[in-house]
Amino acid sequence: MTGSEVFDIIVVGGGPVGLSTGWQAAAQGQRTLVLDRHGFFNERCGTSGAERHWRLQYTQEDLFRLTLETLPRWRRLESLAERTLIHEIGSLWFGDVDVETNEGQIAETMRVMDRLDVRYEALTARDIERRFGFANLPAHYAGFLQPDGGTLDVRGTLAAVYGLAQQEGCVLRGGERVLGLEPDADGVTVRTDRNEYRCAKVVLANGAEVNSLLAPLGCRIDIKLYEMALVTLRCRGHDVDFPFWFVFQQPTEEDTNLFYGFGRNPWSPSELVRLGPVFEVDPIDDADQTRGVPDPRHVARLSNWVGEHLPALDPAPAGASTCLAVLPGDPRRQFYLGLATGLVPDGHNIVLYSSGWGFKFVPLLGEVCVDLALTGQTQHDISRLAPTVPQEAAQ
Fold first, then answer.
1. Is 68 contained in some domain?
2. What transmembrane ranges does the database entry give (predicted)?
3. What digits encode the pLDDT tens for the residues 160-192?
């Protein structure tokens, strides 16, 4: 269109997946633009904090295989960035081994690790207490330590993919909000609060705000937004440290009864550790409704659990905040990833990634989004994640 800036690929959303896509598209010679409403390095429209859980294991074998495929891509990113991003402090899952949770299920995950020949160490409740400083765990609790898991350096990753995108010539524009898309047979017109652009393909990596662009085209995907609590606690001494841990428990009438925690960050001088409840309750309608103030009951639930089971930590919060979790309405889905073909008119020109706990897949997701934009397909098995695939049919 006359007066429009023209690109091959426009990425909406400058978070980790959007920046990974922008970097990898530009590295393949594509004229690429990444737009972010709030500016880069913000933590307003997705989960926040300095670290994320890195794990290989999934209860779902297709996702497990994707993490195995992601690992060498993390190593390549670390090499290019000259910075360690995965810190292998271990991934500890324990609790009721048969309970189904939003993180998966322990017993079935162990069976999948056996099938895929991924190493782990099975542990009893007493092993976990003796080795990692937990206390008063129910006798039937059990679990495993997967030693290759641990923690991902979030801000290091963002700096790496931003810098690589910039180095490859990707155009990065923050503080510019996309107002609408007009796909047609030959490409997409993208309207923002500042400009109008034309491109062959659009990649939507804008998480919580994806429906604001899909709805005017006649489609909404089923996502839920939760403002979840984050709590920092003080270690009581230097003699105990933790791997990443997640406790699987039967839900209560009020919440999912799931908690997680990190050890001391290897890159941080702080003695504080971060923990959180994973309570998918009281969804909000819009990312702009977040307040940054956690539900006091959720903080108290976590503090009480720590007071009973983690004597190495002071259960009194040293700080508390929130993060926005963007999750599929159907927990069996995990992610939306694929072309918007069949969702909106001329959807073959729109690549969609939204929702789920996706940070561990950042380098792979960027690659997949570029594959889909350039060829409409990818070598990775994402068939179950396609936006048009009902999950009951995919099981």
1. no
2. none
3. 999 999 999 999 999 999 999 999 999 999 999
